[in-house]
Amino acid sequence: VSEERQALNIKRIVVALDASPHSLAALEAAVDLAARFGAELAGLYVEDENLLRLAGLPFVHEIGIFTAARRRIGSREMERQIRVHSRRVRRLFTVTTQRAQVAWSFRVVRGTVLPQVLTAASEADVLVLGSAGWSQFRRRLGSTARGILPERFGLALIVREGMCIGDRLAVVYDGSSTAARALTAADTFRQRLDRDQELTVLLLADGLREAQRLQVQAENRLADRDIDVHYRSLRGTNALHLADVLQAEGCGVLVLPARSSALHSSALVALLEHLNLPVLLVT
Amino acid sequence: MNGRENVDFEGAKIMETNRELRAHQLYHATDLETLNFETTADLEDLEEVLGQPRAMAALKFGTGMARDGYNIFALGPTGTGKRNVIRTYFQQRAAREPVPDDWCYVNNFEERHRPRTIRLPAGKGRVLRDDVDDLIEGFGTALSAAFESEEYQARRQTINEELQEQQSAAFQEVRDKAEKEGVAMLRTPAGLAFAPVKDGQVLSSEEVEALSAEERQRIESEVEELQSELQKIVQQIPSWQREAQDQFKELNREMAHFAVSGLIDELRDKYGGYAPVVEHLNAVQKDIIENARDFLQSGDEGSNLPAALRGAMQNLEAASPLARRYRVNLLVDHSQSEGAPVVYEDNPTYQNLVGRVEHRAQMGALLTDFNLIKPGALHRANGGYLILDARKVLGQPYAWEGLKRALGSGEIRIDSLGQMLSLVSTISLEPGPIPLDVRIALYGEPMLYYMLYQLDPDFANLFKVEADFSERMDRDGDNQQTYTRMIATLVRQEELQPFDRAAVARVIERSARLAGDAQKLSTQTRDIADLLREADYWAKEAGSDAVRAQHVEQAIDAQIYRADRIRERMQEAIQRDIVLIDTEGEKVGQVNGLSVIMLGNLSFGRPSRITARVRLGKGDVLDIEREVDLGGPLHSKGVLILAGFLGARYAGEQPLALSASLVFEQSYGGVDGDSASSAELYTLLSAIAEVPIQQAFAVTGSVNQHGHVQAIGGVNEKIEGFFDVCRARGLTGEQGVLIPASNVQHLMLRQDVVEAVEAGRFHIYPVETVDQGIEILTGLSAGEPDEAGKYPEGTINYRVEKRLAELAEKRQAFGSNGREDES
Q1: Which of A122, B150, B257, B627 is the most exposed place for a label (fewest CB within 10 A)?
Q2: What is the ipTM of this complex?
Q3: Nearest-CB residue to B227 (from A50, A54, A61)
Q4: Whole-model pTM?
């Protein structure tokens, strides 16, 4: 418990990039975080092996996203495309980070995207990534974001196009150990975002009694912190309802325990797809 | 030769006193009895214009004649008050005439480069402009209210959401279908692709090879089908987007229509009687409904310029885009006018006359629109009168051409000079022309009028009325009355102390002197006004409560003294015998001529020594001035006339066998005019007859081939010039000046000259013929021919004739001896 209650020390943030609009929003958010925490920012670009394989299949064609033109692409051309792409991502990354004057590094690795991202995330304190690599699916969670939900590695900030980090935090609390860590993370972030802001704790409980129990628990956990807390109880995890509550509270970041009894993964995905603010997943 | 009974004896001294002018003839003083007032304060203002009946008739005709081309050119010397006269006259007329219409320029939404004109009754233009400004303000509020309304936001979001859903659903469908078949849809750097997967890994070509032929076949056809399907979806996206765009537009139109129609309807009712205004309001409504969204600067649809730059640009632009597009540019505003306008344009450049289209620099580019159309003097004077200085108009490039074009075509068309000359090539406007109805008065020196008339064929068509201002007027009883009132008016206008009777009399006398004629008065009111102001100054200096004659005198003396330095230097040169002028004794072949020098405002006389030498020759009179190009053509003409006179009178029957040379001694600057020709003739006669001339005299006057002495200019200055030399040396009582008799009427001599004549210490002789003159100069009789044509012995003419006969004989002797080359 004591470990859980210690403030987190965020020194290294990794951001996974693919030059999609969502990933650019993620980059902005990551730079913002790195600047606030004084952390090093590591950019990661994964040269997707799947794409190279795909290029090897003679019957596969690429459909142009704007032109709808059908093209056959060979392995060599795919290699070149990926190289060009990674260079572009690197340029975007350096321009953005240099503007914010944060310490940075940039790495290009080859492999399958999810494992590479997870590997990189394990070496960092926070992983930041876009909600999807596709702009065509505006709200749908991409495969990489989906892929990290069942993993347990720490903190992941998921950002969609048009989102940026707000000053006010909300955290979902359901009494689980992940939720306990979520409280700690929320407090850590609050100190860096705006220490005078109230923290909203959303108690995920079935009934009033349960809610009261959770509130007492949470109060205990936050007891020795100098913090204003505002409690609200949530009945169920209806995504639209939660979105309304968050908007009413004026929250800018939601800290969400990824693993809890009350939030199973399909509900989590629905939440992530409907909320209009960056979500810090505690896995 | 009539009236010469006193000189018919040989060598007789002549009694000049008979012919000498008396003091009262030298200065035509104003009779104080005719001035029936004490000071100018007793006199009424002068309403009419002084001494310009001809010009006033022309002005009246030019303004009354309501036909094209009857514009006025007022010509006359500077200082005659042309501009004021015209302006006052125009203003009097204009006050009774109707106020002309207002003119506005408004945006032409169909053809942006051709702004449209709206003509409204006087004062309505300003009302319309203010109404439209209010309307625009109303637009701003109404539009932002409409577009920020929940309704609009919700409907807009719905359209957006619909589009997203449509796309998303279509992709999702293909993706789901692919997944079912074990195929993944993957994002490549440039597009999308389908590939068979197993456990999240795309199958490699080896793995595909390893599959059964049937399975491979199935996957391939599946991928093929998915690809086609995806292609169709991607192809459809633009049309979905277009649809959404159309929906947006329709929504915007609907909102804008709702927001602005009420506002515009109000104005349309108010201006129901003015078809062009209603037409314009309709166009505004149509345009704003189409473009309303563009005027609202919302965060998501701003320009793609960086924010800092956008801010800077907004600072540069004074008005919002909404205002710039719909505002009324009130070009001519007569809301404060009474009567027709009378405009004087002091700086008549092309643009100041016909108006201009200004440009605004924005990001290094020059932009313009109808708001930047600025009126010219023609716009302001339209329906009234415009006064221009002809010299200034001609001095400005293209101004004269522009003025003529406007008058000729009867409309004002604003053409950019830069564009016309291809100096700038930037976006420009062709504002609709405005019909022109204006009466123009140009004023300038007569020279300009005559040159324009001669050189510019359009001029006579456009300026048919010639208002000729005279520089002098008759000095008679009525005019003197008017003149005193003019002086009184000036005194009051300039807020001077009143002038008493004697002072006014002195001013009138000075005016006659300025006119150079005792019988005339100067109408150059500028000079008179100067004199009045300066006299007032001296009166105040002296602590006097009214301006008196001595102050006027002092003002005149001070004027002369200020300009006098060079005259003084010349006088001094004569006193110190640097310039040789004799004022006593007698000399053969030498006489004092008189010339006038004009320097700025001052003219003064100066004596010059004229000498002649004669010798045997072929009959030519050599003008040395001309030989060295120091003499002008008029001077040469005078000398040739002398030769004509000599030959005809003395050598009718024999060859004129002399050569004479004439020279203006110590003249280094050139001489012109024939006023010295009588003096030259006297020296020549003296040289031929070898009779000395009295050096106490100076001579002026031109002479014709019959020996008559004719009038010259500047007689007063010439007399005074010689008087000054003599006075400085001490008046002997012998000295005097010979002037043409016809110049006596011009005499307005200085008081000290008049006094000297009165005291018999200086003499002025009017002379009609050369014979009269030579008698005075030599003291000998000229002599009249008897029946045989012979002159009495001892007379000048006798001596001349005798000498010429001798020369002719000698010449013949030379000729028969073949000693002279007759080539």
Answers
A1: B150
A2: 0.84
A3: A61
A4: 0.67
